[in-house]
Amino acid sequence: MNDAITRPWLAAILSLIFPGLGHVYAGRARRGLGLLAVVYGLLLAIGLSGLASSLPGFYLLIFVTFLGFGYLILDAYLLARRQNPRIPKKYNHLGVYVSFALVMVLVQWAQLAFRGDVMGFESFRLASNSMNPLLREGDYVVVDTHYFLRKQAAIGDVAVFRSVEEPGQVYVKRIAGFGGDRIAIRDGQVIRNGKMSLTLEVPPTRRQREISRSMETLDVPEDHLFMLGDWRDNSRDSRFWGTVPEQNLLGQCDLVFP
């Protein structure tokens, strides 16, 4: 790069790929870092507040993301155009540019890898119809990963959790029992602690198979959950692979996009 001549288009491209790098290139590193802190701070605030799992909050998150990073690109472009030619700063050399780019790669990786813990939401595309008609195969769901930190889980909650058999696999089912509960299925009805659970009732057309109509009483271990899919005949759930440790819970399914 020529330190005497600032190329506005290059500043914009650098900010597009590595937010903030365009400002470093244009000799305004402090301004770029300040803008980055504001954008990431707003995104973090939206995530930690739980807004990201509501429809208005999710759209707000998208809006702030595009507006914030879009402004970074535009601002870097305009700064580079106004300061041309410019007096190079001490940090205007390739080594700093590469180091900054590597830091931003790590930041963006961490943002994706720890999105559920930090931002308070995850997103998945459903691979089955086990929760039909509420959720359908191919639906895109947004999960509030902080939901069960703020509220106590309840029977009937639509929860997302890691598979017991395959830790890398994620399932969406309905909570049907807690630790200490006794769960059975008789004539297609879920019996919880000796009483029929109306919350877990599904239409007869979705519980025709024998496994959906009858199940011997099962004692749910402490700190475990019994999970059921709404389409009993088309769901692999706790009837097949047993109860799920509470620690496997990822959150509640709050938003659905067909």
What would you note in describing this structure?
This protein folds into two domains: 109 residues; 137 residues, Umud Fragment, subunit A (Ribbon). The chain has 258 residues and is of the alpha+beta class. The strands form two sheets. The chain has a seven-stranded antiparallel sheet. Strands 7-6-5-8 form a four-stranded antiparallel sheet. The two termini are 47 Å apart. Strand 6 and strand 7 form a beta hairpin. The model has no long low-confidence stretch (mean pLDDT 91). Helix 1 runs antiparallel to helix 4 and helix 3 packs antiparallel against helix 4.
Question: Which strands sit side by side, in order, in the main sheet?
Answer: 1-2-11-3-4-9-10
**Overall number of domains:** 2
Per DSSP, what share of the residues sits in E-state strands of 2 or more residues?
A: 15-25%
Rg from Cα: 25 Å
CATH architecture of the largest domain: Ribbon
User: What structural category characterises the helix and strand content?
Assistant: alpha+beta
Q: Which fold name is given in CATH as the topology of the largest domain?
A: Umud Fragment, subunit A
Ends: how far apart?
Answer: 47 Å
How many β strands by DSSP? Answer: 11
What is the CATH superfamily classification of the largest domain? Answer: Umud Fragment, subunit A
Helix content: 25-40%
Provide the residue-averaged pLDDT.
Answer: 91
- Shape call: elongated
* Element-by-element helix/strand order: HHHHHHEEHEEEEEHEEHEE
- Number of distinct helices: 9
Parts with pLDDT < 50 across at least 5 consecutive residues: none
Kindly provide the name of the CATH class of the largest domain: Mainly Beta
Which sheet architecture does the biggest sheet show?
7 strands, antiparallel
